[in-house]
Every structure is written in C-alpha cells, then in structure tokens.
Design goal:
229 residues, alpha+beta, four-stranded antiparallel sheet, three-stranded mixed sheet, 14% helix
Amino acid sequence: MPLAWSLLAAATPPALGTPAPAPRQVEVTDSIVRLSDVADLSDLRPDLRARAAATPILALRPGATATLTPEQIRAYGRRRMPLLAQWRPGETTKVVVRRTAPPPAAASTPVACVRPLQAIDPDQVLTAEDFADVDCGTVSAPRAAWRYDRAAKTLRADRALATTDVLAAPPAAMLAAVRPGQSVRVTARLGAVTIERAAEAVQPARAGQPLFVKAGGRIFAVPAVEQDQ
C-alpha cells in the first residue's frame, strides 16, 4: 500500500492557503544560458559534469526572462546532450532565468576579436579551428560575421571572409566541432573491448550533439561528438 498511498498523495491538491514554492531566481550576463546555470549537476559522473555544465540550452536578449520547469530543464539537457537521457535534475521548483542588462560602462569593456586562419566561403559552417584570437587594434566595434542556423544548430558565415578581416569573436559554445565532409574517429565500446574506425561526417555538430557519419558505404548515427574529434 505505500506505493498506492504515495500516488494518491501526489494527486491530492495542496490544502487551501498553502503557498506554491517560490521559483528559484537566476541571473546571467551572457546571451547563452547553460545547463549549469539552471541545474545542479553534482550527481553526474565527473567525466560528464564538465561537458554538461558548458552545454548551451537557450539564448536570451538583455533584460529578457525565461521560466523553466524541472521537466523542461531535463528535456533541454537530453536534447542538447543525449548522454543525459537518464539524468533527472534535482530541481523541485521552477527556475526563472533573467539576463541582466549591460552595465552603463559596457562600451568600455574590452571586445574579443578574431581573424580567419584561411578564406571562408559564405554559408560555411564555422568551427573554433577557423579563427585565431587577435588584438582588435583600432577596430572599436568589430562586426560579427556569422548567423545561427536553427536546423543545423550551429553557426555559418554570413559572407565571404578573408584572413585580413578583424571580426567580433563568435560564441565558442555555438561553434561546430565537426563540419560536413570532415574525417572523424568513431569509437564503439563493448564491455572491455574498444573498436575505432575512420568515418566522414555528413552533417555539422557541436560537441555533445549526435552526428550522422558515413563509413563503408553506410550512414549511421554516432551518439555524441567528442570535443577532440
């Protein structure tokens, strides 16, 4: 009967006058909200915790807010990082995330700049290996040169880029780890046996995302992309 009792208790509405738990308030300054901003990840294995913490789940404009339920947090985590399929966040109440507006002195804050290491074609999928950090020099307001591809969930060049261009640094978490046509290593672990084979990516993917690859004339899915691939 304990199980039946607990199910009944869960279905019973709170007594009149009992206030609902207050949502947890979170403030972020970055445009990208990451899983660690809204969830307690201490119960994850150490090898997953760092990757999960850096996983982007949504973007907010300055001053905007988003209210997330524990179920939504889990769904975001599972969608962005399939290895979290069995993970359940420790949150028991809603989380309200607010992106704070830039401070008045934000204009004097140093801006991160990059330059392409090689010419980049319009619409090319962008990776961290495409750029080198540089001094912005006399460029006080460097232009961004990318757009977000919602279907591919990564960034693409919005115009042709030359190695002499000084650009605003794109958000690192949104850059692809793998682009279409790139050679990757596919690792399969069966108990104590590890099998590796070479394959070719057929789509872009960020670290932690699933990926379709081609090898031996077959196309198949890889559960997640490792950062060093």
